Amino acid sequence: MTTDITGTPAPDLKIIETRVYRGPNVWSYDPAIHLVVDLGSLENFPSTAIPGFTEKLLEHLPRLDQHHCSRGRKGGFIERLHEGTWLGHISEHVALQLQHEAGHDMRRGKTRQVKGVPGRYNITYAYADEAVGLAAGELAVRFVNHLVQPDPAFDFTTELEKFIKQAERTAFGPSTQAIVDEAVSRDIPWIRLNKASLVQLGQGVHAKRIRATMTSETGSISVDIASDKDLTTRLLASAGLPVPRSESVRTVDEAVTIANKIGYPVVCKPLDGNHGRGVCLNLQDAAAVREAFPIAAEQSRRGFVIVENFVTGKDYRCLIINGRMEAIAERVPAHVVGDGVHTVAELVDITNADPRRGVGHEKILTRITINNAARELVRSQGFELDDVPPEDVMVKLTLTGNMSTGGISIDRTFEAHPENVEIAEEAARMIGLDIAGIDFICPDITQPVRETGGAICEVNAAPGFRMHTNPTIGEPQYIAKPVVDMLFPPGATSRIPIVAVTGTNGKTTTSRMISHVFKGMGRKVGMTSTDGIVIDERLVIRQDASGPKSARMVLQNPRVDFAVFEVARGGILREGLGYERNDIAVVLNIQPDHLGMRGIDTLEQLADVKAVLVEAVPRTGYAVLNADDPLVRKMRRKCSGQVVWFSMAEPGSEVREYIEGHCRRGGRAVVLERSELGDMIVVKHGRRSMQLAWTHLLPATFGGRAMMNVQNAMAAAAAAFAAGAPLHDIRQGLRTFSTSYYLSPGRLNEIDVDGRTVIVDYCHNAPAMRMLGDFVDRLGESLSASSELGRPSRIGVVATAGDRRDDDIRELGEVAAQHFDVVIAREDARLRGRKAGESAALVAAGVRAAMEKGARCRQVDTVLDELDAIRNALSRSNPGDLVVLCVDQHQSVLAELESVSHLAQAGARSGDEGGDPDFVQPDEETLDD
């Protein structure tokens, strides 16, 4: 790269915006971090223009030489550095490498310049843990700036250590990670439910949960029994299994008495402890018992201490999963081996320097800690910490072989005697644990324990896996497999069908139609929409729920066996889909709405956003696409599965000819066949054509007049057919779905208010208004034909969200003016960045512009408040008129209409009965129902 560079580079790189995509998104099929960065003056300084930049970068992160970059080979990124590349691109690679340093092997990234904005770049890169990914991006930017101009307050080595420790704190433990990795390898979806180790495997009704190695199948009684070591010992003894003699005590004097009764040496341990905490072994006399008792009692939640005879031998952990022995490890206590040169303390430091050792369970081995107990144990072996033990002499630092205290493990899975395996499996059955760790003390696991002596000293619920998955010596055992086999036996289903619906208009109604079809088939449907989350026809959350968080809530619900998601543009841009894939993607249309927001300025860009759903269709899935929309039609190239077309095009048209060819090749489609009797929805599969329903017999279409709902019904039928619904169930679902407020609140609801036909709808953009206007024209003609009062007036209350472009808002008014005699412009309660009255003024301006061109409208008024606008519309209307309300808060609007209707009815009753017209008897059936 050659460029004329003047001036001095300054550390101007900064993050402007940060997003976390938790599913497929416009940048990637997989979860990703998205940073918008500004290079400032560094836009003029590629890597070759900053002296020593590349050398310093590689000095601190030498493994960047493994990055392929666009070259597709190791070292490709280094080539780019030497040729000259911009610092945004470099930050992407640094963020990936920082995650790699923390143990997250992330390799996917992309950097693109923001169109039309010099120096500003979109950086996206993969992450395994959200918090770690974000921290990696922030540290990468700081580090790159530091390389441009050194900051005395910034020490990269220190910052890297802090970053790695943060990653270790948020990472899964080795047991949880092993199970999650096994689930991923089987294409079982998972969701992390908290910041610790609680994880859901599977979706909806098929979901199982794990917390470390405790599963949703683990019985709480079994866990309680395993936590009570005295009860555990008595139960095992009653089954004839070898256990040490033991009793539980609460005082030190009782402990000494029992120890004398049992006979020395003895063991003191907490009744309900874990990880070997508080366990004191090989106590030779009463004085040792008195010293050990408070140590054990401190770790006992209930204050009881177990005193049992000390069983000599090696420490073995037998792992039993679903009643079968899956792994055995010999646990060797933390120790050092003398070399004749270093002291005990120095040998501990050398051992802890092993990169496999970390704090707690963060790595496969735990660092050895020197405490008072360790000092006493070293002293009992004839050494002090400053002494140099002879070569090859083992110095123990703990008595127990727990990994959590610094011990090591040796795999003995295939060496155990069958009788010992049987004893361990019987012990797990007696306690009732699905996953159990049986601790054996015996001289040799290869010999029958009943002959050589030894005993089961403990049964553990939620046993750790790392001694088996990462033994210090021996072959690792893949024990996550039997755990996942137990939760999801071969052939078991882990996913529920997901139908995702997107488009500019019609999403909510289509989603409701699909849900209604499958509810009629007995499915427990979880649906998200702009109105809220519905689980099995019960509204559980009332809010705009068309985003990824709502989708995840449905997938976590244990009742749901079928999911229907309305997916809005905003959620995709903000977080991605929030789930991995959808079995069926439905794209209804691409119309000019929400343009000019979040960098989406053209219909083509909006189509790319909506196409994320199509890209998330697997090979076994379907994309249901509107063949009448050119932008939707192009999405077929992005579908890995099969395409199902739906179209209202006339037979013989270019679109229909294309669909006919698609079906001749075995494809599927839903089309309209027109005749003198009406329009018939027809399902085509290969060369078969199957009549589904007359459009005028579907309640949601208002006798075939509401063409937008004809189209929505066709999309719903195509989606249901692709999802495997029988034709008669689809037909029944569509025939019983109406636009009543119960089934479709706020979407084309028809209400009679004192002789006026009132339509309540959500229409909020010009394309939707064209469809609604066509319906108004058809309905108005029908009302005129049946009216004895002459030509009814059409009054429309119109509004849109304030974050739309001025031209789009004006166009809404222009279209409305073509279909209404009177237009009342109102505003939503949320102004979305505009001043009060501004968006209503734009709607009114559009109406006036259309009126000057000869539009139908003869009057336009502005009433900002929604309810006031509705009252205004009703007050100026007469019986027989058509009033169309484009609403925002449909609940309060319906309450107002109910109130007006009840007042009118009460007034009529009062007049008939000669009562007081000002008195209204409260109606029991209100919107509180």
Automatic annotation (TrEMBL):
<dbReference type="InterPro" id="IPR044019">
    <property type="entry name" value="Cyanophycin_syn_N"/>
</dbReference>
<comment type="subunit">
    <text>Homodimer.</text>
</comment>
<dbReference type="GO" id="GO:0005524">
    <property type="term" value="F:ATP binding"/>
</dbReference>
<dbReference type="InterPro" id="IPR011810">
    <property type="entry name" value="Cya_phycin_syn"/>
</dbReference>
<keyword id="KW-0436">Ligase</keyword>
<dbReference type="GO" id="GO:0071160">
    <property type="term" value="F:cyanophycin synthetase activity (L-aspartate-adding)"/>
</dbReference>
<dbReference type="InterPro" id="IPR011761">
    <property type="entry name" value="ATP-grasp"/>
</dbReference>
<dbReference type="Pfam" id="PF18921">
    <property type="entry name" value="Cyanophycin_syn"/>
</dbReference>
<dbReference type="GO" id="GO:0046872">
    <property type="term" value="F:metal ion binding"/>
</dbReference>
<keyword id="KW-0067">ATP-binding</keyword>
<keyword id="KW-0547">Nucleotide-binding</keyword>
<comment type="function">
    <text>Catalyzes the ATP-dependent polymerization of arginine and aspartate to multi-L-arginyl-poly-L-aspartic acid (cyanophycin; a water-insoluble reserve polymer).</text>
</comment>
<dbReference type="InterPro" id="IPR013221">
    <property type="entry name" value="Mur_ligase_cen"/>
</dbReference>
<dbReference type="InterPro" id="IPR036565">
    <property type="entry name" value="Mur-like_cat_sf"/>
</dbReference>
<dbReference type="InterPro" id="IPR004101">
    <property type="entry name" value="Mur_ligase_C"/>
</dbReference>
<dbReference type="GO" id="GO:0071161">
    <property type="term" value="F:cyanophycin synthetase activity (L-arginine-adding)"/>
</dbReference>
<feature type="domain" description="ATP-grasp">
    <location>
        <begin position="233"/>
        <end position="488"/>
    </location>
</feature>
<dbReference type="Pfam" id="PF13549">
    <property type="entry name" value="ATP-grasp_5"/>
</dbReference>
<feature type="region of interest" description="Disordered">
    <location>
        <begin position="905"/>
        <end position="929"/>
    </location>
</feature>
<dbReference type="Pfam" id="PF08245">
    <property type="entry name" value="Mur_ligase_M"/>
</dbReference>
<feature type="compositionally biased region" description="Acidic residues">
    <location>
        <begin position="913"/>
        <end position="929"/>
    </location>
</feature>
<protein>
    <recommendedName>
        <fullName>Cyanophycin synthetase</fullName>
        <ecNumber>6.3.2.29</ecNumber>
        <ecNumber>6.3.2.30</ecNumber>
    </recommendedName>
</protein>
<dbReference type="Pfam" id="PF02875">
    <property type="entry name" value="Mur_ligase_C"/>
</dbReference>
<dbReference type="InterPro" id="IPR036615">
    <property type="entry name" value="Mur_ligase_C_dom_sf"/>
</dbReference>
<comment type="similarity">
    <text>In the C-terminal section; belongs to the MurCDEF family.</text>
</comment>
